[in-house]
Amino acid sequence: MTHPADPATIRLLCVEDNPDDVELMAIALERGDPHRRYVLRRVDDAAGFVDALQEDHDVILCDFNMPRFSPYAALQILVARRCGTPLVVVTRAIGEEAAVHVLRCGAKDYLTKDKLGTLPQIVERVMTERQRVLEQERLGRELEAAYGRLKKLSARLVVAQERERTLISRELHDHLGQTLTGMVIHLHAAKRSGDPDTARKHTDTAMAMAQGAVGQLKTLSFALRPAQLDLLGLVAAAQTAVQRMAEPAGLAFSVTSRGDEPDKLGETASVALRLVQEALNNTVRHAQASRIGVRLRFLPQARIGVLVVDDGVGFNKPLVLDGQPSEHNVGLYGMIERTELAGGRLHIRTYPGQGVAIRAVL
After folding, report:
1. What angle do CA 242, 245, 249 make, to 5 degrees?
2. What is the pLDDT of residues 318-357, one digit of tens each?
3. Fold of 9-136
4. In CATH terms, is domain 225-361 a member of 3.30.1360.40?
5. Residue 128 needs a FRET pair 20 to 30 A away by CA distance; which of 12, 52, 134, 253 works?
6. What is the DSSP letter of 175?
7. What SS3 string covers 290-314?
């Protein structure tokens, strides 16, 4: 539909049985608004009207008194076809009661043919009103879509929280819990032993396991929120996180940054770090890569950009992200959920054999 503010062609559908009246309308439009080009198409019955609706028109001008058609029939057809083109009644004579009735039935305005000089203003007004309605409908659809995404995100947030709690519980039970249980066993054995050398061996083993438990606790604590993030900043924390995972896997790595890192980081910094950790974990487990690069960008308004690129085998994105989280894509969906819950968007670019690039702005 043509925007009323543009000096462009305006297409008008004239439902009129008198060709001379259509010519008078064209003259009035040209005189009243010479900066625009008006294209008028005339029809005078229902069949012609329906056929004309296959094309786009900005406004419909409809005579009130015609032997084979009426504005009421035109409005019924518009409703049935869900066509929102505004209709203006243009007639020689119309009573006040009839004018009110046709407006209640859906006409946007009416004009008597002895006042065609105001036709350009009426056309522009109804077009402007139509644009406003379309904009409201668009905003309504966007709002509804955003509400739907929010509901899905809220549901996925609960699932993500439970998934992370399960992972933490498993780490505590399978590693730290077993280590502490072993310590207790060796300490009891040392206490029951009557041989000092045997007791000392059990005690030394328990101390070694205690040191191992401290290391496991530090690893788990680092995975949840590295101390470097609060003490040294995001770049240093990302450097440490990448080094801890890339070096044992034999990956060459680089961590770079652009922009000035703020003295006080917001909540998005921890999300950015988790994205780096999860992307690196996916690379180590699945990518068969030899190198990974991480770039952080500190943007205005406390925004943070994250880019993680590897040279691995890549994957078929439509096939892996098939719309349903599962065991083979839970890591990627976790990253998407985490980013969206932080108010950002995550973009994944990959092709089989061409590596993976993950970009997010938080």
Report:
1. 125
2. 887 776 655 566 677 778 877 877 778 889 999 889 899 9
3. Rossmann fold (3.40.50)
4. no
5. 52
6. I
7. CEEEEEEEECCCCCEEEEEEECCCC
